[in-house]
Amino acid sequence: MAKPMTRPYSRYSHDAVVLLGQLIRRARIERKITATELAERAGLSRGLVQRIEKGDPGCAIGAVFEAAAVVGVRLFDADHGALTAALGANTAMLTLLPKTVRASKLEAKDDF
To answer: 3-state class of 101 per DSSP?
Structure first.
């Protein structure tokens, strides 16, 4: 079976994924945790940990977040209470917004 084509990512997304991988690797090394130990603690394979640390954008976001949490890289507010409050506020805001967004039926007339 042929390998699927890789999805193109913006420079910003690529750099952000690489930076997050570097932060996870740095925190792991500073805590003297091997890639195998991180994999065991996070419930991931060693190969997936290596891909995360290399900045592979194809890694599942949950796996990346779990690896980051295990080594202490905080992606949001370090205070769990503040994170829970932000989650609740965002959930409340999303309930007020429409559930779907439809494309506009009006065509813009830009032939001035």
So the answer is: coil
Non-local (6+) Cβ contacts of 56 within 8 A are 17, 21
Digit-by-digit pLDDT tens for the chain (112 residues) are: 555 557 888 999 999 999 999 999 999 999 999 999 999 999 999 999 999 999 999 999 999 999 999 999 988 876 788 888 888 999 999 899 888 888 777 777 777 6
5 DSSP assignment: P
- Could you tell me the pTM of the whole model? 0.77
Query: How many whole angstroms separate alpha carbon 86 and alpha carbon 92?
Result: 10
Task: Kindly tell me the sign of the dihedral angle through the C-alpha atoms of 26, 27, 30, 34.
Answer: negative
Q: Rounded distance, CA 36 to CA 65, Å?
A: 17
Distance CA 5, CA 8 (A): 9
Residues 71 and 31 sit within 8 Å (Cβ to Cβ): yes
